Amino acid sequence: MNDAPPTGPATPADSVEPQSRRRIRADRARQVAEVLRRQIASGAFASGLLPDERTLIADFAVSRNTVREALAVLRDEGVVERRQGVGTVIVRRPYEHTLEQLTGLAETLGTHGEVINRVRVAHVVRPPGEVARKLHVPDGGHVVYIERLRLLDGVPLSLDLTYLAADIGEPLLAADLAGRDLFGLIEQSTGGPLGSASVTVHAVGGDPHTCALLDIPAGSALFTVERLTRMPDGRPVDLEFLRIRGDRLAFRAELVRAAPESESGSESESEYDEAARRTGGER
Amino acid sequence: MNDAPPTGPATPADSVEPQSRRRIRADRARQVAEVLRRQIASGAFASGLLPDERTLIADFAVSRNTVREALAVLRDEGVVERRQGVGTVIVRRPYEHTLEQLTGLAETLGTHGEVINRVRVAHVVRPPGEVARKLHVPDGGHVVYIERLRLLDGVPLSLDLTYLAADIGEPLLAADLAGRDLFGLIEQSTGGPLGSASVTVHAVGGDPHTCALLDIPAGSALFTVERLTRMPDGRPVDLEFLRIRGDRLAFRAELVRAAPESESGSESESEYDEAARRTGGER
Question: In chain B, which residue's Cα lies nearest the Cα of A229?
Answer without folding.
Answer: B255
